[in-house]
Amino acid sequence: INVANFRFSELSAEEINSPMKKLAFRNADLTDESFNELLKLLRYTPELLQAEFDDCALDGVGDFQPSESDIVRELGKVETLIIRRLHIPRFYSFNDLRSVYSLLEKVKRITVENSKVFLVPCEFSQRLRSLEFLDLSENLMVEEYLRNSACEGAWPSLQTLILSQNYLKSIERTGEILLTLKNLTDLDISRNSFRPMPDTCRWPPKMRFLNLSSTGIWAVKMCIPQTLEVLDVSNNNLDSFSLFLPRLRELYISRNKLKTLPDGSLFPVLLVMKIRENALSTFSKDQLGSFPKLETLEAGDNHFVCSCELLSFTLGQPALSQVLPDWPDSYLCNSPPRLPGQRVQEARPSVL
Predict the structure, then answer these.
(1) Are 49 and 82 in contact (CB under 8 A)?
(2) Alpha-carbon distance 18 to 86, whole Å?
(3) Which of 57, 216, 318, 324 matches a 20 to 30 Å C-alpha distance to 83?
(4) What is the domain partition of the chain in residue ranges?
(5) Which residues does 36 contact at the CB level (< 8 Å), separation at least 6?
(6) Considering only 90-94, 116-120, 333-337, which range has the smallest mean pLDDT?
(7) pLDDT digits (tens, 9 = 90+) for 153-170
(8) What is the pLDDT of residue 337?
C-alpha cells in the first residue's frame, strides 16, 4: 500500500475503541509526513501491543515534526516495535530521531534488522529506559559507533542484545564497550569477522548466553566469560576445546574440526552438547562417562571409524537413543573399507 499521501480523518475517540493487538505494514511506502498521520491511529487502538514494518520504504530523512496540537507523546501500551528491511533512499542524511525519543521510552522490545543502521545516538539510547530486548542484526555497526550507542547510562534495562552480521572486528573491544550494560545477560555477535581471540577480555557481569557462531575464530581462550550458561561456537575453525566453564549447561560446537569429544571434566554441569559435523572418529564409554550430568549429545554426521571398540560399545548400550536424539540415522561408518555408508547401529565387523 502507498500511504505517502495518507491523511487521517478525525473521529471522536469515543466512536472507535479497537481491540487490535498488532498492526503490521508490509511493502508500504511512507514519508515523514504520513508517519505523523499514522501516529494518530494510536488514539483509537488503546490495546495495541506490537507494531511491525516489513519491506517498507521511507521517503524522508526522519524529520518527524508534527504540529503541537497533533503531537502524540507516547505509544500507549505498545511494547514491541519490529522493523525489517526498511529502505531509506537518503539514509546518509537521516536525522537522529530526536522527535520520537519520547515515543519509545516505554517500549520493551525493538528489532531493526537489515536497515543500514550504523549508529544509535547516545542520548537516544539513554532515553530507552524500558528496553529489554534489542536486535540490530544485518546492519552497519562497528566498534567506534557502538561505543557511542552503548554510552554510560544507555539501555539501563537491556538484557538481550543481538548484533549478528554487522562489521565488528574485535571481541575484546566489543566486550569492553558493553561493560556499561549492567543487566545484559544474552549477547549474540555471530556472523561478524573477528580477529584472533585475545587471552583475556572484560564482559558485563551478568552474561549467561554468548553466540560466537560463524565468526571465523580458530581457538577459544580465557577471553570467554566464566559466567556463561550457554555458549554457541558453531561453524568456526576450532580443532580443540579445552576451556574450563564451571556454569556451562549447553555447548553448541557443530561444524568445526574437532577430532575427539572435549574433556567432560571441563563442564561439571553440562546438560546439552551438539557436536555434529566435526571430524570425530569415535567415542567411548569412558569419554561419555566424563560428563557427570550430560543428558543430550548430538554427534551425528561425523567420520566414524567402525572399529571393534566403537561397535562393541554401541552394541552394549541399547539405551543410546535416550542420550543421542539423532541416533541411529546420523551415525554412519566412514571406514573400514567394507562398511562405508552403513549405520553404526547395523554394522558388523568381520571376525578378523
Answers:
(1) no
(2) 27
(3) 216
(4) 1-107
(5) 64, 65, 66, 70
(6) 90-94
(7) 999 999 999 999 999 999
(8) 86
